[in-house]
């Protein structure tokens, strides 16, 4: 048996767009890094009559976060490294800063502050465009915050009705409305937020034209108190009317309305509109989606809706590649049709191969995968899609070699905005070579999964959580055994600081396999750890149970698995970030995590850098095994798009 070790690897994606560029204005960037061409090639703005200036900002009084808020608000401070456009440009920036800094003070509940902006020792508000300045203008911003105000009166006239606890707006509304009360800190943004939340609650109650009609805000400087009164007009209650579709030329408009699922006669609900936009977006056939309401409610109490979409190109093709010091060259490609029969049916072909060009290798050492998949949305109501696939693959890992072909067919459903599920039947014919020799398997089974995704971003999450549960019962015909595998994985994220630059991320996974002896179990269904999405620093699926038989020693999969990962992510600036991480994994020969044999707890640690692009963060991680075994590499390199989890 000639299984290959998985070493450090490099992966890159190349995206180029040269459409419409004149020959004299050609520039090229990879992940935002300029490879050739000048700034002028991108139409950079030239500053006329540049006038440098040096800014000093000081704050008297206030709170710990006030100075940071004022610096973020000040145009002079934010652009301190960029020369102004002459005297007029500098004076205009300074005069605008009075308003911006005042708004920042109000936002922190300081309504009696004093602001002074001196340009070369003279108040900016009193300067004319004829003022003379030195070659580098000294700018001094002095702010006295004064006392912090609190609400005396905090009143909403015509308040919305109370909503059930499970309404989506409740989690946002309650903290905001708790802050809009007598005695609480009178931040200006709380008044605005209270108005917006109150209008949103009226809309949640079925009043789509609810608006704020009046706002009275009075600051009493004698007692440092702010009285705020918001008047709302809820308007009429309404029901959904007709749904019109505009903009599409390739997708059946009736199908678009069906997938939007805004039923006429149903009480108006903005959450249903948001779900409709999300459902249409998941079809993948539209470049843009916007659902708008009619300007007025009809006399019969209905409100018509218009779905405006813009089609995407129906066909797309993509390429990728990998280079490994041990595994040679890898290539992958796909072709996809997003709208096969006019109702967003998706047909996709995928192929990949790795291990090409390795010295002394043969075709049997190449890892490959080839497959075709089909998705038809809206088969049993708008939330349910039909999915089917056929995949053939060969894998040559440290622990086993696999050649298999798998056919699947099933359904996937969106139950709620963040809740999805899938169930499918599968048939797999496979041949494995491992510690137990060469064996054939024929599997018939079911695969089910459910996930809850409440992350703020899938590629760069800073808050929220993700939970996923999977189960996979099957019957293996060659040996006549029933077996079941399952796993539960969770991820959570928490950001710190006003800019959310520091993020702590954690991941945990538990897996169990219940079935026959390892010698009669398909190796790909047994449990292994190791690899980029598991324990970094160890080869993919290389952590298992060491087994000895007839003087031969090898690694087989286990029946239970525990994985844990932690990352400290810090965003240094708009372009770069740094990451420190620690991964650990444990595989046991028993479903109770305490069998006669186990892998022991193996850990890997490392550092990484992130380069932030429009596609997501470009990830480069270097990991080392903390419990290095004889066959493990000293370090491993991982490159990809998006955070590791």
Secondary structure elements and their pairing?
Elements: E1 9-12, E2 28-30, E3 33-36, E4 50-51, E5 53-60, H1 66-73, H2 75-78, E6 84-85, H3 86-107, E7 114-119, E8 122-123, E9 137-144, E10 150-157, H4 170-179, H5 188-204, E11 211-220, E12 225-233, E13 239-246, H6 253-260, H7 270-282, E14 286-293, E15 302-311, E16 315-324, E17 328-337, E18 346-356, E19 367-377, E20 384-396, E21 401-416, E22 419-434, E23 437-453, E24 464-476, E25 481-496, E26 502-514, E27 545-549, E28 552-556, E29 560-571, E30 576-588, E31 602-613, E32 616-625, E33 636-641
Q: Summarize the amount of helix as a percent range.
A: 10-25%
- The Rg value, from CA coordinates, equals 31 Å
Number of strands: 33
Unreliable stretches covering 5 or more consecutive residues: 1-44, 166-172
Q: Structural class of the helices, strands and pairings? A: mainly beta
Q: Which strand-content bin applies to the residues?
A: over 45%
Q: How many individual helices?
A: 7
The whole-number mean of residue pLDDT values reads 87
Oligomer: single chain
Biggest sheet record: 17 strands, antiparallel
- CA distance, first residue to last residue: 34 Å
What is the approximate shape?
globular
């Amino acid at each position: 048996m000639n299984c290959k070790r998985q070493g450090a690897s490099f992966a890159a994606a190349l995206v180029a767009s040269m459409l419409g560029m004149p020959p004299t204005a050609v520039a090229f960037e990879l992940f935002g890094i300029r490879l050739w061409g000048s700034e002028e090639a991108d139409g950079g703005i030239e500053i006329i009559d540049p006038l440098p200036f040096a800014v000093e900002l000081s704050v008297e009084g206030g709170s710990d976060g006030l100075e940071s808020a004022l610096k973020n608000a000040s145009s002079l401070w934010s652009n301190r490294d960029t020369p102004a456009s002459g005297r007029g440009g500098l004076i205009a920036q300074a005069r605008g800063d009075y308003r911006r800094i005042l708004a920042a003070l109000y936002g922190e509940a300081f309504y009696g502050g004093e602001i002074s902006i001196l340009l070369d020792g003279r108040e900016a508000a009193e300067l004319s465009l004829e003022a003379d300045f030195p070659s580098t203008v000294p700018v001094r911003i002095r702010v006295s915050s004064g006392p912090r105000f609190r609400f005396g009166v905090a009143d909403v006239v015509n308040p919305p009705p109370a909503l059930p606890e499970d309404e989506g707006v409740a989690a946002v509304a309650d903290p905001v409305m708790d802050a809009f009360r007598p005695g609480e800190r009178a931040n200006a943004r709380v008044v605005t937020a209270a108005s917006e939340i109150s209008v949103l609650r009226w809309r949640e109650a079925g009043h789509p034209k609810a608006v704020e009609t009046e706002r009275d805000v009075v600051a009493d400087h004698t007692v440092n108190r702010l009285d705020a009164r918001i008047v709302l007009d809820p308007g009429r209650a309404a029901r959904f009317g007709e749904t019109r579709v505009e903009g599409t030329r390739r997708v059946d408009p009736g199908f678009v309305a069906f997938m939007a699922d805004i039923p006429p006669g149903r009480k108006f609900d903005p959450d249903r509109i948001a779900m409709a936009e999300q459902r249409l977006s998941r079809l993948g056939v539209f470049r843009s989606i916007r659902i708008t309401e009619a300007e007025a409610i009809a006399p019969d109490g209905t409100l018509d809706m218009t779905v405006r979409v813009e089609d995407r190109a129906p066909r797309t093709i993509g390429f990728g590649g990998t280079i490994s010091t041990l595994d040679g060259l890898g290539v992958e490609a796909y072709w996809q049709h997003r709208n096969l029969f006019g109702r967003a049916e998706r047909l996709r072909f995928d192929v990949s191969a790795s291990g090409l060009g390795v010295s002394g290798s043969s075709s049997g050492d190449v890892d490959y995968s080839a497959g075709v998949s089909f998705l038809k949305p809206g088969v049993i109501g708008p939330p349910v899609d039909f999915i089917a696939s056929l995949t053939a693959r060969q894998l040559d890992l440290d622990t086993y070699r696999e050649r298999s072909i798998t056919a699947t067919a099933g359904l996937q459903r969106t139950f709620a905005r963040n809740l999805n599920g899938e169930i499918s039947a599968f048939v797999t014919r496979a041949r494995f070579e491992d510690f137990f020799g060469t064996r054939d398997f024929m599997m018939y089974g079911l695969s089910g999964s459910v996930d809850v995704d409440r992350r703020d971003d899938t590629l760069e999450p800073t808050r929220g959580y993700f939970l996923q549960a999977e189960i996979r019962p099957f019957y293996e015909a060659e040996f006549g055994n029933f077996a079941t595998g399952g796993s539960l994985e969770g991820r959570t994220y928490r950001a710190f600081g006003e800019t959310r630059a520091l993020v702590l991320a954690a991941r945990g996974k538990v897996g169990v396999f219940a079935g026959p002896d390892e010698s009669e179990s398909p190796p790909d269904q047994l449990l292994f750890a190791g690899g980029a999405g598991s324990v970094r620093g160890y080869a993919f699926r290389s952590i298992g149970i060491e087994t000895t038989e007839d003087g031969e020693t090898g690694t087989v999969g286990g029946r239970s698995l525990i994985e844990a990962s932690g990352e400290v992510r810090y965003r240094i600036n708009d372009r770069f970030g740094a990451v420190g991480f620690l991964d650990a994994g444990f595989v046991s020969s028993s479903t109770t995590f305490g069998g006669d044999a186990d892998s022991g707890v193996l850990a890997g640690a490392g550092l990484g850098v992130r380069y932030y692009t429009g596609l997501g963060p470009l990830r480069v991680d270097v990991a080392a095994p903390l419990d290095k075994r004889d066959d493990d590499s000293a370090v491993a390199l991982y490159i990809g798009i998006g955070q590791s989890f």
